Each structure stands twice: as C-alpha cells, then as structure tokens.
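protien #1 (seq + structre)
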Amino acid sequence: MSKIYTRTGDKGATSLFGGSRAEKDSLKVEAYGTIDELISNMGAAYSFMEDEKLKAEIIDIQKKLFVLGAELASDENGMKYLRELIQQSDIDILEKIIDKYMEKAGPFKGFVTPGKNRVSAMLHVARTVARRAERVIITLGREDEVREEVKKYVNRLSDALYAMARFEEER
C-alpha cells in the first residue's frame, strides 16, 4: 500500500494536474478546495436522505463537481488530458432540477431559516459553500482563465441546492 503523504507540499506548494506547482493559498487551490468541501457537504446531506430520486441527483451532481474540480486543479498542460468538462447540457440539467423541486415545494413565501430538518439544513450549508465557491471562482477568473460553463454551473448549483432544501422542508 502506498503512503498518502508525499512531503512535497510541506513548504506550502502543491502540484496541479499537468505538473506545475501552485501555492496552497492561491485562488486556484482555494477554488478547487472549496469545490471539494462542497462535495463533502453534499455527501453529509445525502447520508440522511430518504428520497431515492433526490439521492440519485445528489450523486450525479457530486460526480460533475469532481469533473469541475479537476478542471480547476489543472494547469494548461493538464487541461489537454481531461476527458470531460462541464457543458451547457449539465447546466440545463440543473435548471430542470431547480424547476422540478421549486414546483414541488410551492411558491416562495420569503426568506427561509435553515433548520426545519436535518437534510434541508445540510443542503442549505452546501448551498452556502456553493455560493462561496462561486465567489472564489469569479475572483480566480480575473487572473486565470475560467470557462463560462464552470461559472454558470456553480451559480445554478446553489439555486438547485436551495430548491432541494425547500423540497425537503415541505416533505
């Protein structure tokens, strides 16, 4: 069994997919690290879910977030080797999810205070992490190329997580 530590990051830099290195506090590392945090928060919510369709959608979104995170963690050389990128069709799927769960949850009646139940509260936590990821990605885009599909996907995702949380609150 290989060791998970390499000691190559002990001085504050990490390897990007493609071979270059970045400081661990760089916006690039912050962006894909926040996506990783988001995936984990969604997993925590998933662990308490009972609705099988919702669980399947969460898993599918987590898989897409791994794709998105890989893109953010890649340098120019690494981008050449990625087999999948977030596409407009992925954004379209999130929009369908938003519409479906907002229809099920009913009309918006004002601000929602998270905590009605465990799953909805955890989805709201994931939503706020998605919003933070979006802010970091937008800032990253000022100094490094970030595709529009990445920005749109994370923006729609926070709305999808809100819609899912509302659905769970009304169940």
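ok now protien #2
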Amino acid sequence: MAPSSTTEVTAVAPLGSGARLSVIVITKNEQTHIRACLESVAFAHEIIVVDSGSTDETVEIARAMGAKVTVTSDWPGFGPQKNRALDQATGDWVLSIDADERVTPELAQLIQQEIAQPQGTAYRIARLSEFAGRWMRHSGWWPDRVLRLFKRGTARFNEAKVHESVQTTAPVLTLEGYFLHYPYASLEVFIDKINRYSSDAARQMQAKGKTTSLPAIAGHASWTFVRHYVVRRGFLDGPQGFILACMAASGSLFRYSKLWYYTRQKSD
C-alpha cells in the first residue's frame, strides 16, 4: 500500500566504516533539482555526476556540494551514459538516482542497514511520484519499483538510449522504503520530454527493423489511454489521472507516428 503521507527530505549522517557506497547521477540542465537530490544522498562515501553539457548552473552546484563531476561532449543515450558514471564508481555498492529523485531519511537508513548486512546483491526500490500537485498512487505510477541499488561488479545498465534498466544475473530483492520523484515541473516540460523520448524510442524501434501502420498507431495510442486510466485505475487519481493517461497516449501516438515517418523516409 502506498504511504499516506511523505516526509520532508533532510540530511542523513554519512556512512561509517565498512561497506562503501557510491551514488551515481547523470544530468543535463538540472539546476532546479540537483541540490536537493545530492543533499538527500549526502550519507554516501562518494557522489559521481556525469553531465552532458549543461548550460545552467548544474555543474557548479554539484561541484560545490562535493560531487565528482565529469562533463561529456556527446550524448550516447541513457544506458551508455549511466555506464560511464558506473565505471567511475569505487564503492563496494552503487546507488543510481535521477536528479529529479530524492532519498528519504527512512530509505537512507534502510540502505545503510542493508549494505552493512546484505541479504543479496541487487535491490528494487519503489518511487512515489508527484504530478500537478498530487502524489500519484495509481495510473501505473505506484509502486513503480526500479532496480537501483547493487553491489559493484555484479550489474550494469543495458545500452538502451531510453528506458534503460540495470541488468544482472543475480536474484533481485525488494528494499522497503521509497524515493520521492518529481518528474515534471510543468506540462510544457512533460510535452518536451515526450517529444524527445519518442524520437529516441522510434529510432530504436526502427534500428530493430520494426514497422507500423496507421491502424496500429491508433490502436497503440487508444490502448495506452485505456491501460493507464482504466486498467491501472488512473481514474482514482482525479483530474491528474485523466491528464496523465492522455499524456501517455500522446507519447504512444508520437512514438509510432515517428516510426512510420522514419520508415517512410528510409524507403523513399
């Protein structure tokens, strides 16, 4: 069950001796989020930030907070970029976090306890996400568990340009607690992200030889709305649930429309 309330994120005391924890973050123009994100993981032994050419104050803020920052001149995609950060980690354990996420004090304590006496080598952690002023507890957004904590050397990110994931052959356990997630500051930000991600996803599908048709485009978009709003009970998230289902359907529409367009360009 989703928590009924959230706790303000505050600093947690750094880890003591024993297992060392590296936190890895990739960024671009995240000055709105990066300070609170890094404050929430201040208990780690090292924080590694790999930035892909921010034009705001992201890099300066991260360095001022003690992070080891590397700026890259290219953008290989989310999976490869996160592996670049992972390759710089020196800790026994790695926690991957996005700039728009926060580790709650409760989760910080659970992470420290687990790596001190681990039951496994890889852990999924839930995310509680905010959208338009509401904590989303349906719509497929909760518990939204993602594999983010793992023993270094036992896992890597796949090479996906979007929707990357950690790959491991070890059993994956679930760690209690959750991240706080603030994915979209506005609908404009959401729409911009849908546009960028759909282009990358369409190119990725095209590279795999996938094609589509106009009926399939309509079918994918329609089913995406039904899945989010009805199957995943987005209607229980109020107006935000309806808007979120519409945005998800738009993402599907853009993705498959672009695949159709890219395929047509290639065949001409």
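Confidence is low (pLDDT under 50) at residues 4-13.
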